[in-house]
């Protein structure tokens, strides 16, 4: 199973409420915070929606770190 490491790079201040909710649904809380998520269509769609706030990169670690 492939994984994505998603990192919040920019603040959610001055963004729409639905984008703030998407960032929180991804599990991101603070600037610089990273999470590991499964690479599927739902997560990819969420990342695409807030692509100006986050960066997503492939992750090659263990499966036990998925939130």
Describe this structure in words.
The chain is α+β, with helices and mostly antiparallel strands. It has a single domain (3-62), classed as 2-Layer Sandwich (Ribosomal Protein L30, Chain: A). The chain contains two helices and three strands, in the order βαβαβ. The chain has helices at 17-25, 41-49; strands at residues 3-8, 34-38, 54-59. A three-stranded antiparallel beta sheet has the order 2-1-3, with no helix packed on it. The longest helix has 9 residues, at 17-25. It is globular and about 35 Å long.
Q: Can I get a quick summary?
A:
The chain is of the alpha+beta class and 67 residues long. The protein has helices at residues 17-25, 41-49; strands at residues 3-8, 34-38, 54-59. The chain has a single domain, classed as Ribosomal protein L30/L7 (Ribosomal Protein L30, Chain: A), CATH 3.30.1390.
